[in-house]
Amino acid sequence: MTDRVLFSKLRAIFGERLQENVRLANYTTARVGGAADGLLVANSSTELAEIGRRLWELSVPFRILGSGSNVLVSDNGFRGVVVINHARTVKINARQTPPTVWAESGANFSSVARQAALRCLSGLEWAATIPGTIGGAVYGNAGAHGADMQTNLVMAEILHPQNGIEMWTCERLGYEYRSSAIKRERLPLIILSATLRLTHGDKDEIWARMQEYVTKRRRTQPPGASMGSMFKNPPGDFAGRLIEAAELKGARVGGAEISPVHANFFINSGNATARDIWKLIRLAQRTVQEKFNVNLELEIELLGEWDENE
């Protein structure tokens, strides 16, 4: 988006809220990525909807980032506007049957799980180790420990560019393993909030389960700057096992490394570029395909331009 006339229109609408040429490495957990032409912050679902409507009206390309935990941004950045989702309001209704929690899409999922546990509400223990946001979890059907978003979702509030706000059920979202219709079909929609189903439970038991999952995560998954799981697990197998069996555990390109702790995590040692990580991705995909005839499908999202032939 290099049209200065268009940028002037954005400035007239958003004023000083619109930041220009912002490095996205500061907004992703992998700590890599070039600059976005423009950046806006939404502090509520109402602001998020208004920003989306305005950008659609001007036909400005944009992407929404929550925690930035499941995305790899190109070193060349993003030609358009990135919207940082800080819509984080959470409301718990423990009196209705079943109890529910409503959360704006920028709310941290693990924080929502902890807030529910404090009120003796069960059902989100599995989310205690999810680093992303509610919106990201709805979008990608996030899951862990045998459960996923489909297990809990009652309804998602979705903004459509022509139809306005719609309420989507799991059926309409078309959930599959780590996927939704929105993700698969790259639908130009904005997830504003979600209502999740809970159950009443014993507070000590709920916290014990959550602590068990947190302890397991710390034992089996590496620390450091990463995007979380890089690839989806293929049917009947595990991406990490295949990468390890391909003798790629610990492989490095520049400042990026396939973790020696868990081979489905790619770590930025501190000076990696997005291109370093991309080269490791392609290496893992080619090698696993050659050795085991398995196509490793990315779980993360790519933002910006990429050379598929590298």
Describe the structure.
This protein has 310 residues and is α+β, with helices and mostly antiparallel strands. It has 3 domains: 4-85, Uridine Diphospho-n-acetylenolpyruvylglucosamine Reductase, domain 2 (2-Layer Sandwich), CATH 3.30.43; 90-220, Uridine Diphospho-n-acetylenolpyruvylglucosamine Reductase, domain 3 (2-Layer Sandwich), CATH 3.30.465; 239-303, Alpha-Beta Complex (Uridine Diphospho-n-acetylenolpyruvylglucosamine Reductase, domain 1), CATH 3.90.78.10. It contains 10 helices and 18 strands. The strands form 6 sheets. A 5-stranded antiparallel sheet has the order 6-7-13-11-12. A 4-stranded mixed sheet has the order 1-2-5-3. A 3-stranded antiparallel sheet has the order 15-16-17. It is globular and about 50 Å long. It starts with a helix and ends in a 7-residue tail after the last strand.
How do the helices and strands line up, and which of them pair or pack?
Elements: H1 4-14, E1 19-23, E2 35-42, H2 45-57, E3 62-65, E4 71-73, E5 78-85, E6 90-93, E7 100-104, H3 109-118, E8 121-122, H4 134-140, E9 143-144, E10 147-148, H5 149-152, E11 153-160, E12 164-168, H6 170-173, H7 181-184, E13 190-197, E14 199-200, H8 203-220, H9 239-245, E15 252-253, E16 256-258, E17 266-268, H10 274-292, E18 301-303
Parallel strand pairs: 2-5, 3-5, 4-18
Antiparallel strand pairs: 1-2, 6-7, 7-13, 8-14, 9-10, 11-12, 11-13, 15-16, 16-17
